[in-house]
Amino acid sequence: MRFLIRVVINAFAIWVVTLIPALQVEVTAFAPGEMLQFVLTLLIIAAIFAVVNTIIGTVLKIVAFPLYILTLGLIGLVINGFLLWLTAWITSGFGWGLTVGSFWWGVLAAIIISIINAVFGGILRPQKNKRRD
Fold first, then answer.
1. DSSP for 47-68?
2. What is the model's pTM?
3. Cα–Cα distance for residue pair 92/99, rounded to 1 Å
4. Each residue of 102-128: pLDDT tens digit?
């Protein structure tokens, strides 16, 4: 359930980022390109982004731990931008998916995606049941 909520939030965040033309982030829907295909493409891209972030992102964050300390966490912005760029590279191999204009625009887009994920994630994610005795 948490993964599905995470995918929907990611899809919404990626859609919001594509609405900002200055970021040069676009989504190309698979054929025939109608609204349903666009939404499904967003959901698939969000699922791929979640898997990339979970697997590769975790490894990168562990390896880059000394850089986190040195840069006071700012390397995390670059890593998130790299993960978004990697997702764009993976999905572009299918002929549809995410395109990012440049790496640094990807970093800025990843910052916006992270902010949206934090806001909506805090609101929509299921809470663990806490019992008071």
1. HHHHHHHHHHHHHHHHHTHHHH
2. 0.84
3. 7
4. 888 989 999 999 999 889 888 876 666
